[in-house]
Write a structure and sequence with these properties.
Blueprint (H helix, E strand, L loop, with lengths): L10 H27 L11 H7 L9
Amino acid sequence: MRTKYRDNMTEAELRAFMREIDALDAAYAAAAAHDAANTQPLPEEWEDEGEYWRRAGLDSRGRP
């Protein structure tokens, strides 16, 4: 929803705003946990950036 805080918000608006903030906090925490649980280093042969682009079938600017 992307509610913006205002000084004159009603109680209902403040509760909705806080629910939105809590949902965002939960989403960020879940994303961080996912990233922490799924750390796999790239194979050594992918360390060369040019090789990375060639394997992806893209030029050096990321275009096909």
